[in-house]
Amino acid sequence: MVAEHVPAADALGRITAAPVHARGPLPRSDCAAMDGIAVAAAAVAAAATAAGAGAGDGDRVVLPRGTFEWIDTGDPMPPGTDTVIIRERVVARDDGGVLVTGRAGGDLAARGGNVRAAAEDFAAGELLVPAGRRLRPADLAAAAAGGHATLAVARRPAVAIIPTGDEIRPVGAVLHHGDITDTNSVMLAARCRQAGARPAVSAVQPDDPDALAAEIRRLAAEADLVLVIAGSSRGRGDHTAAVLAQVGGLAVAGAALRPGHPVLLGHAKPGDGSDGIVPAVGVPGYPLAAAVICELFVLPLLAAIGGWRHAVDSRPAVLDRDWTPRPGVEEWVPVRLTRSADRVVATPGRRGAGSVSRLARADAWWPIPSGQGTFPAGTEIEVRPIPGDYSA
What we know:
Layout: E1 3-7, E2 20-21, E3 31-32, E4 36-39, H1 41-51, E5 60-63, E6 69-71, E7 83-86, E8 90-92, E9 98-101, E10 115-116, E11 127-129, H2 137-145, E12 150-154, E13 158-163, E14 168-169, E15 180-181, H3 183-195, E16 198-201, H4 209-220, E17 225-229, H5 240-247, E18 248-253, E19 257-258, E20 264-268, E21 278-283, H6 287-306, E22 315-319, E23 330-340, E24 343-348, H7 356-361, E25 364-368, E26 380-385
């Protein structure tokens, strides 16, 4: 894991590269937990005995000037005091003293009452945040309280995304007959950013193997992972498999998966002559296929590169209709989720890997292992919610 230091206030969603230990205790000294007066409990007890006050309801005692100090929440306890009597039980007197009223069933001043002891929250050297944690707001606060202005976090993996295709046009371009907007780059870049990576989208590359090879080599010198969109099938303009084999190596060409079966897994060598290889994924061009490949292959690769755990959120839901999966493949089905009474209901949509709207309307994925028969309506299934948070 390659680490970098960032201000604690800017580290939300980053992954800790090292454990965070407290550089000092919290609180740093005994301090008031409430507004009121700081006293020595034994002195109050002695004054109560001298005045004939007991511990019952309505007990009261007068404390003269010099036997207490006014104190606010968070103030260090003055020397010689060990207890705070809350402001609501204290009445100031004209002579500088105070009248302290009792409470039902309790002492006028129980020793240690309303005081936060030094190191009550944590001691110096105590572990506050473990390594490998995706930092949450409370983690940042704890680290700051422990004396850390900056934190060592994993460097965000750099992801190069290369859209390809003579018919592909950037978002916002004027479309002519046969042109297609490059929506996959938008989706993949956002998902990578959501996972904690730094995506960069290149210019659209034509269906030219030499141009694509040059672009992959160039970006492999700058990125930790290269994604090539489209060109992974066997059409006349599909060159990604051959190009990956040329610029590095091709390990997998196709998977028993729907959507996403034309996926390519390989690596590329940087074009600057440096050592090492960079993993590369050939992402199918259909939007649903691209999204599935991102979940199945891209996100685990980013976790391995970035040094964090790839956590999968799985939740139960009840199928609202019969569903027969495709035979012989693992199928990923986008589903909509609704709540009915005490259960979550999953509604699969129609099949079609080219439907970006179907993915936008979905709340979760339903991964179905190969070899499953028909699922009757009412079957409890496990779904993976599509994350809607932005954590990077």
